[in-house]
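Worked example 3 (structure in, sequence out).
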């Protein structure tokens, strides 16, 4: 919210560079309601989102691999396990 209590409309400025969007100029949209002043700004945001998505995917796949590895190490360690039947009265 701004100083004067006026919340800016989402189409007033470019999402990336914050350049004001003119009344009679093209607005390049991305992901439904994200405005950009040019194709270049929009493409830069798309590239950043894709990079972030790939980085998160790599992190999640590598962490799940290390988790599976640690689980395998736990099951293969020398632990004594008792099996049998327990009767409860």
């Amino acid at each position: 919210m701004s100083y004067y209590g006026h919340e800016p409309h989402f189409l007033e400025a470019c999402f990336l560079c914050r350049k004001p969007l003119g009344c009679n100029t093209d607005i390049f949209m991305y992901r439904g309601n994200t405005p950009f002043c040019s194709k270049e700004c929009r493409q830069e945001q798309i590239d950043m989102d894709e990079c972030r998505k790939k980085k998160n995917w790599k992190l999640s796949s590598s962490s799940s691999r290390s988790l599976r590895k640690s689980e395998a190490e736990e099951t293969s360690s020398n632990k004594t396990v008792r099996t049998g039947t327990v009767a409860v009265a």
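Notes: The mean pLDDT is 78. Residues 30 and 46 are 8 Å apart (CA to CA).
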